[in-house]
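Objective 1b. Sequence-to-structure analysis of Zn-dependent hydrolase.
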Amino acid sequence: MPSTPVWRRAIAFATSLASLLALLIVPVATPLAPAVAQPAAPAAPVAPERPDTCPGLVSALPPRAVPAAFRPVALAPDQVRLTYVGHSTFLIESPKLVRVATDYNDYVKPPVLPDIATMNRAHSSHFTLAPDPGIRFVLHGWRDDGKPAGHDLSYQDVHVRSVATNIRDWSGGGTDRHGNSIFIVEAGTLCIAHLGHLHHTLTPQQIAEIGRVDVVLVPVDGSYTLDLDGMVEVLQALKAPLMIPMHYFSRYTLDRFLERVKADYDVEISDTPSVVVSKTSLPAKPKFLVLPGR
């Protein structure tokens, strides 16, 4: 068979090469062909400036004073949160976050509005005649007719009752009968007794009316309220496993009381003004827990 001329082989090779190049070029040229228009991809959103969440700027921001004790953190059904606000004022919070402020006054107030405010009238730093109208229940520890206050209030998961005591009549030097009340707050599974402005030891009847208590909030100044020996006698009669000092005017006053009791009781100094207490967390041996206040 005669061989194919060179020029025919060259033409065939060129044709094959052109076909191959067309196959390679078509995919690249395809987007240039008419097609249905597609919307442009949206631009990435620009985040607003949030210097308060920028880790690099945290140290430049002013500190936020949000005490952990006042965050609405749920409590277990058997727990109570106690916060020492100062002087004789505590904030007691129940598992349903019912708030009780003791010896509510115009000078030392909790940072949140209480549902219940208890008061005593020995001094103006223990009561106010113009409480915040948003307080649901205002319980005076005295009556104007001289009879015992006799409170017995239930609200949600809190029960508050009072036991009357006498105070000094500062104007005449005598006795103001039933001028003070020991308030007993029952919340969770605990009974908490706030002794108020106690001026005398307790009678057997008063001890019986108070009943078993788990926590005692005790004035320890030793002069304006009951003297140190008398206060120790009261605490020995109440037999509470946990006692929290209040109503002291200096570190010296507090230390003097703690020195008096440390031979018979354990003493713990807390760094925070709040403590969560339950029946199971009560100390096996009676103890004083000192919470910092103002």
